[in-house]
Amino acid sequence: MLKRILSGAAFLFLASVASAQTLFTYGRDTVTVPDFLAAYKKNNAGKGTTSLNDYLDLYITSRLKVREARRLGYDTLPNMVADLQNLREQLLPTYLNDLAGVDGLVQEAFERSKKNIRLAHIFIAEKGDAAAAALKMQQAVSELGSGKPFADVARRYSEDPSVKDNGGELGWIAVFTLPYTLENLAYNTRPGALSAVQRSKAGYHLFKNIAERPDPGTLKAAQILLAFPPGATEADKAALKKRADSLHARLLKGADFATLATKFSNDVVSANNKGELQDLTAGQYDPVFERQVFALAKDGALTAPFLTEHGWHIVKRRSLVPRPATATPEVLQALRASVEASDRIATVRGVLAQKIGAQVGSTPHSFNNEHLFLYSDSLLEYKKPGIALSITETTPLLRVGDQAFTTADWLKYIGANRFKADGSGAKPYPQLWDEFREASAIEYYKNHLEQFNATFRGQMEEFRDGNLFFEIMQRQVWGPAQNDTAALEAYYNAHRSSYQWTDPVDAVIFYAPDLATARAAHTQIAKKPAAWATVLATYDDKIAVDSNRFDRGAIPNGAKTALKAGTVTAPLVNASDNSAAFALILKEHPGTAPRSFAEARGLVIADYQKELEAKWINELRARYPVTINQPVLLELMKGK
Q1: d(CA 562, CA 568)
Q2: Which residues contact 250 (CB under 8 A, 6 or more apart)?
Q3: Domain encompassing residue 130
Q4: What is the three-class DSSP state of 388?
Q5: Taking the chain, what is the end-to-end CA distance rounded to the nearest angstrom?
Q6: Same-domain check for residues 358 and 441
Q7: Chain segment 85-137, per-residue pLDDT in tens
Q8: Which residues partner with 511 through β-bridges?
Q9: Is-above-0.85 flag for pTM?
Q10: 363 phi and psi, to 5 degrees?
Q11: How confident is the model at residue 472 (pLDDT cuts 50, 70, 90)?
Q12: Domain boundary at 182, 214, 246, which?
């Protein structure tokens, strides 16, 4: 990826030279110092084998080829356009999230993951009357302020169905347990204190932070659940309690937990897995259940039978993985996946939309809101508006930057997004309008990302230029050099003296994926060279074979070995990929001899390709004259 920001001691000089100075021109195009140095650094990272001056020549040649590909219109070929668009779609989500602050959310989640909060809750539903709900919450806050117990006030005012049993206590919550806005409310409340009142789409919320503790980590456990059947009587529940005690006694005497769970547990999912539960973290389950299982002090410990609203449970601790204390790349990557899958992304997108609007402008046009909503109803709900409307499908509603969004765009958006996620009906039009404005800003950003983000622009340019380079090389050099048999034969006939065998041998070369495989096969083949094909059959295509005539220099370890018929050379490791090769010599051919066209074809293709490319580059340099800014180049070389 081309990068605009460079680092490293070798490039400190860039600060004084690289301020968009032109390094060279070709035709009407220019290349700046930062562009060249970014490419140089990327392609010589950790190598240091190509001098800056030599690389400049290679770089100029590549730019000439890409420029010619654009002149010939290769960048408009359907496959080129499709490849570039596919890459764009793959990269967009990362850039959308990163610019809007996902990294900050990941760090926030890591800090919050270190602790749990024991939380109590009062909830007042709006039920279509926000004023009444707000007043009711004010009364609850007033009573709490006068010193009344939270549980009493919660039972009097809260509309959470579980409040009659738990007095509003939710138990321990952890990061990702609650919707993000409520999580913020909880984690921003001090231990022992009441939170501010938070309004959500459902109503009003108030928390009390009862206590905090370090997060216990992730618990692996297994359970036996004796669930209450529908309509269970007290006698039924007593019978299940008796069975639970009996199973517990058997477990204490050494009975196999998995066997009993499979046979007796009513939790179908875990029973089919020998009682094993999914990994447990704080805030996932009933507080009574979590209190029991996280109290188990060591692996293998067993709870006594305990009761929840679901039935009688017996739980065995398998292991406990502590919460990571260090933000390693692996930990942050796992948290990032959780962040991107959570409702936090809606918050992130809202922040991004605000940034885009502030930067390029987001301005509604003047139109009649009521007419727009009636027009929408007429199409989506088939309701007759009853009045003449000033809205049509092409009416401009909103402008973001230089992009206009019309009624057609609005209808497309609300057609896909007008219903609430919980299935409780359609969203009100004002809410949809706010969402549409946000979505339009994001859409503008996606369509103009190259203008916002230099790194993204660099990635796209690099991919596009790489594709153009490959395409024009295939058409101008590689394809003709491989497929024009008449031209190849003519080149061969003009250069016969260049294609000679030097001490050739007939041989079989064996290519193994690693040295160990090569040594094993080498040992077997060296014992019975004539049976090499039989030996190879036992390796299931792990070893590739090339049987041909070769120059001595092409034989692995050929320079170190007397190449007599029947000789098996020692394996030679390829340093680039750690593969290994060795050879079996079948026949010697001392001295020199001319190669036939068929024998020399590979060499002829390579040489003819070089000739074609050299001639073509001369033509490109004539079409796009290159002028190097020598003083700037000299300063760069001194700086390097």
Answers
A1: 10
A2: 260
A3: 115-214
A4: coil
A5: 22
A6: yes
A7: 999 998 887 777 665 578 889 999 999 999 999 999 999 999 888 899 999 99
A8: 544, 581
A9: no
A10: -125, 120
A11: very high
A12: 214
